[in-house]
């Protein structure tokens, strides 16, 4: 094979694309019912935008960005996530005024130099949304409620909704010290470089895959005990509204998220069908992001769902939608009948039918084989006799039943 898709990327093939369309349609219909409007941002942005917002100690910035200089010497990066670009655009185009709430949604590729495995890619895709401008706990609850509904509407009900609060910077500083103190017995054995990483961002310990760290942290202090009073009230209010809305969730003090822009509420939805990459989505509140890129303080909250991961989980349920089948497969038995067949096909398409027309003059047998392969429910057949009478034969390809009808009277009866 001379060329293959680059490592960590994949093609969405014709027999899979309908599932992507189903997911994107399900998402767009749902978010639009809450008043979100679509935004599309470029595939690359100034590198500095991501360094500023995701944080210069985050894995995304330190290890995963696809950064390059263009021929004009600009430092650019393929977007590793969709929130910072959406907020850059919000600010650049003044999409909201102070005190107003703006609701944005998007579907986007993201690029991260990760070790590829099932559910983890170097080009992945997300659907996501940002609720910009509201400090209310009702905003956090709206985003979480909508997220749970999205997975339910897709057909995924067996999911865990994990919600936490990481407070404000003071709470996180106090908690970091407590966490490092608690983990000190295992941290002593760390190589200096690994230890320096921990000291830079101790919260990453909570995502550690090292067995000794996991064991040590089993009884680590909970960040919920370090929250500022207003963060504690906010978190309680979010939980109360979620309960009112009938959303089942679990408080999960170990969820801290890998991007640095969050404060207060953070959450993930996990599925048992995903193996190691169990997060279907991640989100949270990010009140400081807009100010960090030169905008006014603008409390905001959002979420992004991994499209590939949601589809893996959906396929595991066995309920993923089937590929759509054509309604009709058109067959002309001789070259002269092709014109009438095209008229018949056009008539049916005008009525909303999916019609595939065989283009190559060949035997009835090979055209019928092609009709079977296409999955069409019925065949349209026109030969010399039908042409002379201005008719078409409609044959049900499952039962073999057929009837002839004048082309101007042809009507589509949806399956
Ligand atoms: P994130 O947790 O980095 O958050 O990504 C969200 C979701 O995207 C993950 O839960 C996962 O489903 C999917 N995902 C991320 N990286 C990959 C990958 N390499 N391969 C496959 N799927 C992946 C964000 O991106 C934030 N911008 C979410 C957000 C929006 N926060 C506020 N607003």
Structure description:
This protein is α+β, with helices and mostly antiparallel strands and 415 residues long. It contains 14 helices and 16 strands. The strands form three sheets. It has an eight-stranded mixed sheet. Strands 13-12-14-15-16 form a five-stranded mixed sheet, sandwiched between helices. It has a three-stranded antiparallel sheet with strand order 2-4-3. Helix 1 packs antiparallel against helix 5 and helix 6 packs across helix 8 (211-217). The model has no long low-confidence stretch (mean pLDDT 95). Histidyl-adenosine monophosphate binds at residues 81-83, 112, 114, 119-121, 124, 126, 128, 130, 258-259, 279-284, 286, 302-306, 308-309.
How is this structure best summarized?
By secondary structure, the chain is an alpha+beta fold.
| Helix content estimate | 25-40%
The SSE string, one letter per element, is HEEHHEEHEEHEHHHHEEEHEHEHEHEHEE
How much β-strand is present in the residues? 15-25%
Q: Residue-averaged pLDDT, rounded?
A: 95
Low-confidence stretches: none
> What class, by secondary structure content?
alpha+beta
Largest sheet: 8 strands, mixed
Task: Provide the gyration radius in Å.
Answer: 27 Å
SS summary, helix count? 14
How many beta-strand segments?
16
How far from one another are the termini?
A: 41 Å
Chemical compounds bound to the protein: histidyl-adenosine monophosphate
Morphology: elongated
| Strands ordered across the widest β-sheet | 1-5-6-11-10-9-7-8
């Amino acid at each position: 094979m001379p060329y293959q898709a680059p490592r960590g990327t994949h093609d969405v093939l014709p027999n899979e694309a309908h599932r992507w369309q189903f997911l994107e349609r399900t998402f767009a219909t749902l978010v639009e019912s809450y008043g979100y409007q679509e935004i599309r941002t470029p595939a690359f942005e100034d590198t500095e935008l991501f360094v500023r917002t995701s944080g210069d100690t985050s894995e995304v910035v330190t290890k995963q960005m696809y950064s390059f200089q263009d021929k004009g010497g600009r430092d650019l990066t393929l977007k590793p996530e969709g929130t910072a670009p959406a907020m850059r655009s919000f600010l650049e185009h003044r999409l909201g005024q102070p005190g107003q709430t703006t609701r944005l949604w998007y579907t986007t590729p993201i690029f991260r130099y990760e070790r590829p495995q099932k559910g983890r890619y170097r080009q992945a895709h997300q659907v996501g949304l940002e609720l910009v401008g509201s400090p209310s706990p009702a905003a956090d609850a709206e985003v979480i409620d909508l997220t749970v509904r999205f997975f339910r509407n897709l057909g995924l009900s067996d999911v865990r909704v994990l919600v936490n609060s990481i407070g404000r910077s003071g709470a996180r500083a106090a908690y970091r010290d407590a966490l490092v103190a608690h983990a000190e017995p295992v941290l002593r054995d760390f190589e200096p470089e690994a230890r320096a990483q921990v000291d830079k961002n101790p919260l990453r310990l909570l995502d550690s895959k090292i067995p000794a760290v996991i064991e040590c942290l089993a009884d680590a202090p909970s960040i919920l005990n370090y929250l500022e009073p207003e963060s504690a009230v906010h978190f309680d209010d979010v939980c109360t509204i979620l309960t009112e809305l009938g959303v089942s969730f679990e408080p999960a003090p170990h969820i801290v998220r890998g991007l640095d822009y969050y404060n207060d509420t953070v959450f993930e939805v996990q599925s048992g069908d995903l193996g190691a990459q169990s997060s279907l989505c991640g989100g949270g509140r990010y009140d400081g992001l807009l100010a960090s890129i030169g905008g006014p303080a603008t409390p905001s909250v959002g979420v992004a769902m991994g499209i590939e991961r949601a589809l893996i989980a959906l396929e595991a349920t066995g309920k993923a939608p089937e590929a759509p089948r054509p309604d009709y497969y058109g067959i002309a038995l001789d070259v002269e009948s092709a014109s009438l067949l095209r008229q018949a096909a056009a008539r049916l398409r005008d009525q909303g039918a999916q019609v595939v027309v065989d283009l190559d003059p060949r035997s009835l047998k090979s055209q019928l084989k092609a009709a079977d392969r296409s999955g069409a429910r019925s065949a349209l057949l026109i030969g010399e006799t039908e042409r002379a009478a201005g008719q078409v034969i409609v044959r049900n390809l499952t039962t073999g039943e057929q009837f002839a009808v004048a082309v101007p009277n042809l009507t589509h009866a949806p399956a």
